[in-house]
Amino acid sequence: MLLAMDVGNSxxxxxxxxxxxxISSFRITTNADRSSDEYGLLIIHFLSYLxxxxxxxxxxxxxxxxxxxRYTLDRMTHTFFRCHPMFVSYQLNLGIKLxxxxxxxxxxxxIANAVAGYELYGGNGACITVxxxxxxxxxxxxxxxxxxxxxxAPGIRSASEALTSRAAQLRRFNFAKPDHVLATNTIEAMxxxxxxxxxxxxxNILAKLKMEVxxxxxxxxxxxxxxxxxxTHHINTVDKLLTLKGLQIIYNKNR
Length: 255
Fold this sequence. Notes:
- The chain has about 260 residues and is α/β, with parallel strands linked by helices.
- It has helices at about 35-50, 70-80, 110-120, 155-165, 185-215, 225-230, 240-255, and strands at about 1-5, 10-20, 20-30, 60-65, 85, 95-100, 125-130, 135-140, 145-155, 215-220, 235-240.
- Strand 1 (about 1-5) and strand 2 (about 10-20) form a beta hairpin.
């Protein structure tokens, strides 16, 4: 079995694959202060819940935007799973070409999304991935498998935290989408502004990307992608496991 880890700024998504099938996935909070043993025990607990053991893990692939966690996760993999982890980078065989000015600065999660976007949704035209994470990232992959670049905007959670931390009378709120934009209380006003505002942000950027590259199939991922997508005109489908699927594809190309 394959253990895939998408290490983001806020959460780590962990997926367990048997062949090409994703058996299960879970999230843990990203914490640079956790030791390799703590991360390992959390994953072992996850495996035991599924009646699986560490001995069944044949490979580990990691995409991380947290360089300081690389050593910790490398050590965890060697200690608990007795194998060398594969870290996603532009130097691997990806099945796509990367047309980007600074390849070392291209996030591993964006690479995984691009690979999955092209393999699963591309080929009959351009494909655009939208990831509603700590940052909102857009990636464009051409019909012939070239990553052309994209855009990066603030994330929903980070923008909301900035809003509530800098305004004394605005308190934290749940990410629920109200039925209307004309809100009559502060909580719903913030919910409407953030949820519908980010739908508009996504739609505007996608419209402009399509003006530059032509028609494209758009797949969205990330924690709130299913909530946002319904209020956009350009998102064709939601695949909340897109990044993990990309990791599995990359692993199979480089094992």
